[in-house]
Design goal:
This protein is mostly helical. It has helices at residues 15-25, 41-46, 49-55, 57-63, 67-77, 82-87.
Amino acid sequence: NAGNIVPPYEATNGGEGATIEYAIEALGIKQIIICGHTQCGAMKGLLQLGELEEKMPLVYEWLQHTAATRKVVQDNYSHLDKKAMLNA
């Protein structure tokens, strides 16, 4: 999915939560690893939400699940340029 974003529990009833729930409860999975990659388009969008709201409203809404992460990055890394902030 876009950005490997998993919405907070009970925030939405989507495939991400259902997949994790099934893995844990039905399959007995003990560890789940979520991997990301550099230059992720979803994370780039996270840093420029204002531009997305009108152009890509569904992507904009999806990225709203990352509000806490966006705040952490802005609060701690706003002194960095865009590329360094994306890496953070």
